[in-house]
Amino acid sequence: MNTESGRTSLLEWDRKRWKCWLHEQEASPAHATTLIQQIHRYGSLEPERMVALPLRLRHRLEHSFRATLPEIAHLRHARDGTCKCTLRLSCGQFIEMVLIPSAARTTLCISSQAGCALGCTFCHTARGGLHRNLSIDEIVAQLWLARHRLWPESAISNVVFMGMGEPLANLDAVLGTLRLFQDDHAYGLGCRRITVSTAGLVPGIERLGHSAEVSLAVSLHAPDDALRTELMPINTRYPIEKLLQACVRYAQRGLRRRRTVTIEYALLAGINDAESHAQMLARRLQGLPVKVNLIPFNPFPGSDYMPSAPEVHQNFFEALNGAGVVTTTRRARGQDIAAACGQLAGESVLREVFETQRSPLMALQGAG
Ligand code: SAH
Q1: Do 24 and 77 share a domain, yes or no?
Q2: What is the pLDDT along the chain (368 residues), one digit of tens a residue?
Protein backbone atom coordinates (compact mmCIF):
# COMPACT_ATOMS: atom_id res chain seq x y z
CA MET A 1 0.00 0.00 0.00
CA ASN A 2 1.31 3.42 -0.83
CA THR A 3 0.74 5.70 2.07
CA GLU A 4 1.50 9.28 2.78
CA SER A 5 0.31 10.40 6.18
CA GLY A 6 -1.03 6.86 6.51
CA ARG A 7 -3.68 7.22 3.83
CA THR A 8 -4.11 5.44 0.53
CA SER A 9 -4.40 7.65 -2.54
CA LEU A 10 -7.77 7.79 -4.30
CA LEU A 11 -5.83 7.02 -7.50
CA GLU A 12 -4.34 3.77 -6.24
CA TRP A 13 -7.04 1.14 -6.31
CA ASP A 14 -8.49 -0.86 -9.15
CA ARG A 15 -12.08 -2.10 -9.33
CA LYS A 16 -11.40 -5.32 -7.42
CA ARG A 17 -9.77 -3.48 -4.52
CA TRP A 18 -12.60 -0.94 -4.33
CA LYS A 19 -15.11 -3.78 -4.20
CA CYS A 20 -13.27 -5.29 -1.22
CA TRP A 21 -13.34 -1.98 0.54
CA LEU A 22 -17.03 -1.48 -0.21
CA HIS A 23 -17.70 -4.94 1.16
CA GLU A 24 -15.87 -3.99 4.37
CA GLN A 25 -18.05 -0.89 4.56
CA GLU A 26 -21.16 -3.03 4.03
CA ALA A 27 -21.95 -1.02 0.92
CA SER A 28 -23.00 -2.18 -2.52
CA PRO A 29 -20.14 -3.38 -4.77
CA ALA A 30 -21.89 -1.50 -7.60
CA HIS A 31 -20.49 1.71 -6.17
CA ALA A 32 -17.06 0.61 -7.42
CA THR A 33 -18.11 1.65 -10.93
CA THR A 34 -19.25 5.06 -9.73
CA LEU A 35 -16.02 5.56 -7.83
CA ILE A 36 -13.83 4.57 -10.77
CA GLN A 37 -15.81 6.78 -13.14
CA GLN A 38 -15.76 9.77 -10.83
CA ILE A 39 -12.05 9.55 -10.07
CA HIS A 40 -10.60 8.49 -13.38
CA ARG A 41 -13.08 9.28 -16.14
CA TYR A 42 -14.39 12.56 -14.77
CA GLY A 43 -11.28 13.54 -12.82
CA SER A 44 -12.95 14.23 -9.49
CA LEU A 45 -10.85 13.84 -6.36
CA GLU A 46 -13.46 15.42 -4.11
CA PRO A 47 -15.56 12.73 -2.45
CA GLU A 48 -18.09 15.25 -1.12
CA ARG A 49 -19.04 16.01 -4.71
CA MET A 50 -19.63 12.39 -5.66
CA VAL A 51 -23.34 12.76 -5.12
CA ALA A 52 -24.20 9.42 -6.67
CA LEU A 53 -22.67 7.80 -3.57
CA PRO A 54 -24.39 7.55 -0.18
CA LEU A 55 -23.39 10.35 2.19
CA ARG A 56 -21.89 7.90 4.66
CA LEU A 57 -19.51 6.57 2.01
CA ARG A 58 -18.53 10.03 0.92
CA HIS A 59 -17.55 10.87 4.49
CA ARG A 60 -15.58 7.66 4.78
CA LEU A 61 -13.72 8.43 1.57
CA GLU A 62 -13.01 11.95 2.72
CA HIS A 63 -11.49 10.77 5.98
CA SER A 64 -9.69 7.62 4.93
CA PHE A 65 -8.09 8.52 1.60
CA ARG A 66 -5.86 11.25 0.28
CA ALA A 67 -6.24 13.23 -2.93
CA THR A 68 -2.70 14.52 -3.22
CA LEU A 69 -0.99 14.62 -6.61
CA PRO A 70 2.55 15.16 -7.84
CA GLU A 71 3.16 18.86 -8.33
CA ILE A 72 3.47 20.27 -11.84
CA ALA A 73 6.99 21.68 -11.58
CA HIS A 74 7.73 22.64 -15.14
CA LEU A 75 6.19 22.59 -18.61
CA ARG A 76 8.00 23.00 -21.89
CA HIS A 77 6.49 23.21 -25.35
CA ALA A 78 8.50 22.12 -28.39
CA ARG A 79 8.07 23.65 -31.83
CA ASP A 80 6.60 20.40 -33.15
CA GLY A 81 3.76 20.38 -30.60
CA THR A 82 5.46 17.96 -28.21
CA CYS A 83 5.13 19.01 -24.61
CA LYS A 84 7.22 17.87 -21.67
CA CYS A 85 6.01 18.07 -18.10
CA THR A 86 8.30 17.68 -15.10
CA LEU A 87 6.51 16.52 -11.97
CA ARG A 88 7.76 16.84 -8.43
CA LEU A 89 6.92 13.87 -6.23
CA SER A 90 6.06 14.25 -2.55
CA CYS A 91 9.57 13.01 -1.66
CA GLY A 92 11.12 15.83 -3.70
CA GLN A 93 12.25 13.68 -6.64
CA PHE A 94 11.42 14.76 -10.18
CA ILE A 95 9.97 12.63 -12.96
CA GLU A 96 8.96 13.54 -16.48
CA MET A 97 6.22 12.76 -18.96
CA VAL A 98 5.83 13.82 -22.57
CA LEU A 99 2.74 14.51 -24.69
CA ILE A 100 3.32 13.68 -28.34
CA PRO A 101 0.52 14.75 -30.68
CA SER A 102 0.53 13.46 -34.26
CA ALA A 103 -2.01 13.32 -37.06
CA ALA A 104 -3.12 9.78 -36.26
CA ARG A 105 -2.96 9.75 -32.47
CA THR A 106 -1.94 11.58 -29.33
CA THR A 107 0.53 9.62 -27.22
CA LEU A 108 1.48 10.17 -23.61
CA CYS A 109 4.92 8.86 -22.67
CA ILE A 110 5.08 8.15 -18.93
CA SER A 111 7.67 7.21 -16.30
CA SER A 112 7.61 4.13 -14.09
CA GLN A 113 10.61 4.90 -11.86
CA ALA A 114 12.39 7.99 -10.57
CA GLY A 115 15.72 7.38 -12.28
CA CYS A 116 16.83 3.97 -13.51
CA ALA A 117 19.26 1.31 -12.28
CA LEU A 118 20.12 -0.32 -15.61
CA GLY A 119 22.97 1.93 -16.71
CA CYS A 120 22.44 1.86 -20.50
CA THR A 121 25.36 3.94 -21.75
CA PHE A 122 23.36 5.98 -24.29
CA CYS A 123 20.51 7.03 -21.97
CA HIS A 124 20.35 10.24 -19.98
CA THR A 125 18.06 8.80 -17.30
CA ALA A 126 20.71 6.19 -16.47
CA ARG A 127 23.24 8.85 -15.51
CA GLY A 128 21.60 9.60 -12.18
CA GLY A 129 20.99 5.98 -11.15
CA LEU A 130 17.79 4.78 -9.52
CA HIS A 131 16.10 6.88 -6.88
CA ARG A 132 13.07 4.71 -6.35
CA ASN A 133 10.13 2.88 -7.86
CA LEU A 134 6.97 4.86 -8.45
CA SER A 135 3.81 3.71 -6.70
CA ILE A 136 0.63 2.89 -8.65
CA ASP A 137 -0.91 6.24 -7.83
CA GLU A 138 2.20 8.11 -8.99
CA ILE A 139 2.09 6.34 -12.34
CA VAL A 140 -1.68 6.72 -12.71
CA ALA A 141 -1.39 10.39 -11.67
CA GLN A 142 0.56 11.08 -14.85
CA LEU A 143 -2.34 10.11 -17.11
CA TRP A 144 -4.84 11.67 -14.68
CA LEU A 145 -3.00 15.01 -14.72
CA ALA A 146 -2.52 14.86 -18.49
CA ARG A 147 -6.22 14.18 -19.12
CA HIS A 148 -7.86 16.27 -16.46
CA ARG A 149 -5.49 19.14 -15.78
CA LEU A 150 -2.80 19.69 -18.39
CA TRP A 151 -4.22 18.73 -21.76
CA PRO A 152 -7.96 17.98 -21.39
CA GLU A 153 -8.59 18.95 -25.00
CA SER A 154 -5.96 16.66 -26.46
CA ALA A 155 -7.81 13.29 -26.42
CA ILE A 156 -4.86 11.10 -25.43
CA SER A 157 -5.32 7.87 -27.36
CA ASN A 158 -2.12 5.98 -26.54
CA VAL A 159 0.16 5.52 -23.56
CA VAL A 160 3.74 4.31 -23.77
CA PHE A 161 5.94 3.35 -20.82
CA MET A 162 8.99 4.92 -22.43
CA GLY A 163 9.70 7.72 -20.02
CA MET A 164 12.07 7.38 -17.09
CA GLY A 165 12.77 3.98 -15.61
CA GLU A 166 12.44 0.31 -16.42
CA PRO A 167 8.77 -0.68 -16.14
CA LEU A 168 9.50 -4.39 -15.71
CA ALA A 169 11.69 -3.60 -12.70
CA ASN A 170 8.57 -2.13 -11.09
CA LEU A 171 6.13 -4.64 -12.44
CA ASP A 172 3.67 -4.89 -9.54
CA ALA A 173 2.96 -1.17 -9.77
CA VAL A 174 2.86 -1.26 -13.57
CA LEU A 175 0.34 -4.12 -13.55
CA GLY A 176 -1.84 -2.28 -11.02
CA THR A 177 -1.67 0.78 -13.26
CA LEU A 178 -2.57 -1.22 -16.37
CA ARG A 179 -5.69 -2.58 -14.68
CA LEU A 180 -6.90 1.01 -14.28
CA PHE A 181 -5.75 2.20 -17.69
CA GLN A 182 -7.68 -0.66 -19.29
CA ASP A 183 -10.83 -0.46 -17.17
CA ASP A 184 -13.62 0.76 -19.48
CA HIS A 185 -15.02 2.97 -16.74
CA ALA A 186 -11.62 4.53 -15.95
CA TYR A 187 -9.40 5.27 -18.98
CA GLY A 188 -10.63 2.51 -21.32
CA LEU A 189 -7.36 2.09 -23.21
CA GLY A 190 -7.46 -1.02 -25.40
CA CYS A 191 -4.53 -3.43 -25.51
CA ARG A 192 -3.13 -1.95 -28.73
CA ARG A 193 -3.09 1.52 -27.25
CA ILE A 194 -0.61 0.76 -24.48
CA THR A 195 3.03 -0.14 -25.03
CA VAL A 196 5.40 -1.25 -22.30
CA SER A 197 9.04 -0.76 -23.27
CA THR A 198 11.74 -2.83 -21.60
CA ALA A 199 15.51 -3.08 -21.69
CA GLY A 200 14.93 -6.83 -21.74
CA LEU A 201 14.14 -8.27 -18.29
CA VAL A 202 13.19 -11.76 -19.42
CA PRO A 203 11.29 -12.92 -16.29
CA GLY A 204 9.37 -9.63 -16.38
CA ILE A 205 8.41 -10.20 -20.02
CA GLU A 206 7.09 -13.65 -19.07
CA ARG A 207 5.08 -12.28 -16.18
CA LEU A 208 3.73 -9.35 -18.16
CA GLY A 209 2.71 -11.85 -20.84
CA HIS A 210 0.63 -13.81 -18.36
CA SER A 211 -0.85 -10.81 -16.57
CA ALA A 212 -1.74 -8.17 -19.16
CA GLU A 213 -2.72 -7.62 -22.78
CA VAL A 214 -0.49 -4.81 -24.01
CA SER A 215 2.00 -4.23 -26.80
CA LEU A 216 5.63 -4.85 -25.94
CA ALA A 217 8.68 -2.91 -27.09
CA VAL A 218 12.12 -4.34 -26.44
CA SER A 219 15.25 -2.21 -26.54
CA LEU A 220 17.80 -4.28 -28.42
CA HIS A 221 20.22 -1.72 -29.89
CA ALA A 222 22.81 -4.32 -30.95
CA PRO A 223 22.76 -7.54 -32.99
CA ASP A 224 25.41 -9.40 -30.96
CA ASP A 225 26.00 -10.01 -27.27
CA ALA A 226 29.44 -8.42 -27.03
CA LEU A 227 28.23 -5.06 -28.34
CA ARG A 228 24.91 -5.21 -26.52
CA THR A 229 26.66 -5.89 -23.21
CA GLU A 230 28.82 -2.84 -23.81
CA LEU A 231 25.77 -0.66 -24.41
CA MET A 232 23.36 -2.34 -22.00
CA PRO A 233 24.92 -4.10 -18.99
CA ILE A 234 21.63 -5.97 -18.39
CA ASN A 235 22.60 -8.11 -21.39
CA THR A 236 24.98 -10.18 -19.23
CA ARG A 237 21.94 -11.46 -17.31
CA TYR A 238 19.57 -11.81 -20.24
CA PRO A 239 21.51 -12.27 -23.48
CA ILE A 240 19.99 -11.74 -26.92
CA GLU A 241 18.94 -15.31 -27.69
CA LYS A 242 17.00 -15.69 -24.44
CA LEU A 243 15.49 -12.26 -24.92
CA LEU A 244 14.30 -13.01 -28.46
CA GLN A 245 12.80 -16.31 -27.32
CA ALA A 246 10.86 -14.39 -24.66
CA CYS A 247 9.69 -11.94 -27.36
CA VAL A 248 8.38 -14.77 -29.52
CA ARG A 249 6.52 -16.34 -26.59
CA TYR A 250 5.06 -12.94 -25.73
CA ALA A 251 3.85 -12.38 -29.30
CA GLN A 252 2.30 -15.80 -29.62
CA ARG A 253 0.54 -16.04 -26.29
CA GLY A 254 -1.99 -13.25 -26.84
CA LEU A 255 -5.42 -14.05 -25.49
CA ARG A 256 -7.32 -13.25 -28.64
CA ARG A 257 -4.77 -12.60 -31.34
CA ARG A 258 -1.07 -12.18 -31.81
CA ARG A 259 0.40 -9.41 -29.68
CA THR A 260 2.60 -6.72 -31.15
CA VAL A 261 6.30 -6.90 -30.28
CA THR A 262 8.58 -4.14 -31.50
CA ILE A 263 12.35 -4.29 -31.39
CA GLU A 264 13.78 -0.84 -30.68
CA TYR A 265 17.15 -0.04 -32.16
CA ALA A 266 18.75 3.37 -31.61
CA LEU A 267 21.32 4.11 -34.29
CA LEU A 268 24.64 5.26 -32.79
CA ALA A 269 27.15 6.57 -35.33
CA GLY A 270 30.10 4.23 -35.81
CA ILE A 271 28.93 1.92 -33.03
CA ASN A 272 25.98 -0.20 -34.16
CA ASP A 273 25.00 1.26 -37.54
CA ALA A 274 27.26 -0.60 -40.04
CA GLU A 275 25.80 -2.66 -42.85
CA SER A 276 27.21 -5.77 -41.17
CA HIS A 277 25.17 -4.91 -38.06
CA ALA A 278 22.04 -4.60 -40.17
CA GLN A 279 22.71 -7.95 -41.81
CA MET A 280 23.36 -9.70 -38.52
CA LEU A 281 20.21 -8.17 -37.05
CA ALA A 282 18.17 -9.25 -40.06
CA ARG A 283 19.50 -12.82 -39.75
CA ARG A 284 18.58 -12.96 -36.07
CA LEU A 285 15.10 -11.58 -36.58
CA GLN A 286 14.24 -13.44 -39.77
CA GLY A 287 10.89 -15.16 -39.41
CA LEU A 288 10.25 -13.92 -35.87
CA PRO A 289 6.88 -12.27 -35.15
CA VAL A 290 8.45 -8.87 -34.45
CA LYS A 291 8.97 -5.59 -36.25
CA VAL A 292 11.84 -3.17 -35.87
CA ASN A 293 11.62 0.49 -34.95
CA LEU A 294 14.79 2.43 -35.73
CA ILE A 295 15.31 5.35 -33.35
CA PRO A 296 17.61 8.23 -34.23
CA PHE A 297 19.96 8.65 -31.24
CA ASN A 298 19.04 11.74 -29.25
CA PRO A 299 22.11 13.41 -27.79
CA PHE A 300 22.14 14.95 -24.32
CA PRO A 301 24.73 16.98 -22.42
CA GLY A 302 27.77 14.80 -21.77
CA SER A 303 26.68 11.94 -24.04
CA ASP A 304 29.50 10.12 -25.81
CA TYR A 305 27.53 9.12 -28.89
CA MET A 306 26.44 10.80 -32.10
CA PRO A 307 23.37 10.11 -34.21
CA SER A 308 23.99 8.26 -37.48
CA ALA A 309 24.06 10.34 -40.65
CA PRO A 310 20.73 10.31 -42.52
CA GLU A 311 22.12 8.20 -45.37
CA VAL A 312 23.55 5.64 -42.92
CA HIS A 313 20.16 5.50 -41.21
CA GLN A 314 18.47 5.05 -44.60
CA ASN A 315 20.87 2.26 -45.62
CA PHE A 316 20.30 0.43 -42.34
CA PHE A 317 16.54 0.77 -42.84
CA GLU A 318 16.73 -0.55 -46.39
CA ALA A 319 18.99 -3.46 -45.47
CA LEU A 320 16.47 -4.65 -42.88
CA ASN A 321 13.42 -4.14 -45.08
CA GLY A 322 15.23 -5.73 -48.00
CA ALA A 323 15.85 -8.81 -45.87
CA GLY A 324 12.14 -9.06 -45.12
CA VAL A 325 12.20 -7.57 -41.62
CA VAL A 326 9.34 -5.09 -41.24
CA THR A 327 11.03 -1.86 -40.20
CA THR A 328 9.86 1.64 -39.37
CA THR A 329 11.70 4.74 -38.25
CA ARG A 330 10.69 6.70 -35.19
CA ARG A 331 10.59 10.36 -35.91
CA ALA A 332 12.44 12.25 -33.17
CA ARG A 333 9.96 14.50 -31.41
CA GLY A 334 10.54 17.33 -29.01
CA GLN A 335 14.31 17.36 -29.35
CA ASP A 336 14.50 21.11 -28.82
CA ILE A 337 13.12 20.67 -25.30
CA ALA A 338 15.02 17.44 -24.48
CA ALA A 339 11.79 15.47 -24.57
CA ALA A 340 12.86 12.80 -27.04
CA CYS A 341 13.69 9.16 -26.19
CA GLY A 342 16.47 8.87 -23.68
CA GLN A 343 16.60 12.58 -22.94
CA LEU A 344 14.46 12.53 -19.82
CA ALA A 345 16.53 13.08 -16.76
CA GLY A 346 14.19 14.63 -14.25
CA GLU A 347 16.28 16.28 -11.67
CA SER A 348 19.23 17.19 -13.83
CA VAL A 349 16.97 18.75 -16.46
CA LEU A 350 15.26 20.76 -13.80
CA ARG A 351 18.60 21.78 -12.37
CA GLU A 352 19.49 23.14 -15.81
CA VAL A 353 16.30 25.15 -15.74
CA PHE A 354 17.06 26.47 -12.29
CA GLU A 355 20.45 27.55 -13.46
CA THR A 356 19.20 29.39 -16.53
CA GLN A 357 16.09 31.01 -15.10
CA ARG A 358 15.69 32.80 -11.83
CA SER A 359 12.46 31.43 -10.56
CA PRO A 360 10.99 28.93 -12.96
CA LEU A 361 8.57 27.40 -10.51
CA MET A 362 6.68 30.55 -9.77
CA ALA A 363 5.32 30.87 -13.27
CA LEU A 364 4.44 27.25 -13.35
CA GLN A 365 2.65 26.64 -10.10
CA GLY A 366 -0.84 25.44 -10.82
CA ALA A 367 -0.11 25.34 -14.52
CA GLY A 368 -3.23 23.20 -14.90
N1 SAH B 1 13.67 1.16 -19.77
C2 SAH B 1 12.85 1.02 -20.91
C3 SAH B 1 12.09 2.28 -21.31
C4 SAH B 1 12.84 3.57 -21.31
S5 SAH B 1 13.44 4.41 -22.69
C6 SAH B 1 13.65 0.52 -22.08
O7 SAH B 1 14.86 0.43 -21.97
O8 SAH B 1 13.05 0.18 -23.09
C9 SAH B 1 12.55 4.21 -24.13
C10 SAH B 1 13.42 3.94 -25.34
O11 SAH B 1 14.36 5.00 -25.60
C12 SAH B 1 14.26 2.69 -25.18
O13 SAH B 1 14.26 1.94 -26.36
C14 SAH B 1 15.64 3.26 -24.93
O15 SAH B 1 16.65 2.33 -25.21
C16 SAH B 1 15.63 4.44 -25.86
N17 SAH B 1 16.68 5.42 -25.60
C18 SAH B 1 17.32 5.65 -24.44
N19 SAH B 1 18.20 6.67 -24.59
C20 SAH B 1 18.10 7.07 -25.87
C21 SAH B 1 18.73 8.11 -26.62
N22 SAH B 1 19.60 8.94 -26.06
N23 SAH B 1 18.38 8.26 -27.91
C24 SAH B 1 17.45 7.45 -28.47
N25 SAH B 1 16.81 6.48 -27.81
C26 SAH B 1 17.14 6.28 -26.53
Answers
A1: no
A2: 444 568 999 999 999 999 999 999 999 999 999 999 999 999 999 999 999 999 999 999 999 999 999 999 999 999 989 999 999 999 999 999 999 999 999 999 999 999 999 999 999 999 999 999 999 999 999 999 999 999 999 999 999 999 999 999 999 999 999 999 999 999 999 999 999 999 999 999 999 999 999 999 999 999 999 999 999 999 999 999 999 999 999 999 876 677 899 999 999 999 999 999 999 999 999 999 999 999 999 998 899 899 999 999 999 999 999 999 999 998 777 777 677 666 666 644 443 433 333 222 322 222 22
Tell whether 58 and 102 lie within a shared domain.
Answer: no
Is the distance from the beta carbon of residue 8 to the nearest atom of ligand 1 less than 6 Å? no
Candidates 100, 122, 308, 335: which one to mutate for ligand 1, based on the most atoms within 8 Å of Cβ? 122
Are residues 133 and 277 in contact, defined by beta-carbon separation less than 8 angstroms? no
Residue 198 beta carbon below 6 angstroms from any ligand 1 atom:
yes
Residue 338 and residue 292 share a domain? yes
- Write the CATH number for 310: 3.20.20.70
* Residue 120 bears catalytic tag: no
DSSP 3-state assignment of 264?
A: strand
Nearest to 110 by CA among 142, 74, 81, 76: 142
Q: First-to-last CA distance in the chain?
A: 28
Would the pTM count as exceeding 0.90? yes
Say how far apart CA 363 and CA 60 lie, in whole Å: 36
- Candidate list 12, 71, 85, 96, residue with the active-site label: 96
Cα 123 to averaged position of ligand 1 atoms, centre (Å): 6
Q: 167 and 48, same structural domain?
A: no
Alpha-carbon gap, residue 65 to 44, rounded angstroms:
13
What is the CA(300)–ligand 1 centre distance, in A?
13
Q: Does 196 sit in the ligand 1 pocket, CB within 6 Å?
A: no
Residue-number span of the structural domain to which 94 is assigned = 71-356
CATH of the domain at 43: 1.10.150.530
Considering the domain architecture, whether residues 215 and 276 belong to the same structural domain is answered as yes
Active site residue 123: no
d(CA 160, CA 241): 25
In this structure, the answer to whether residues 35 and 130 fall within a common structural domain is no
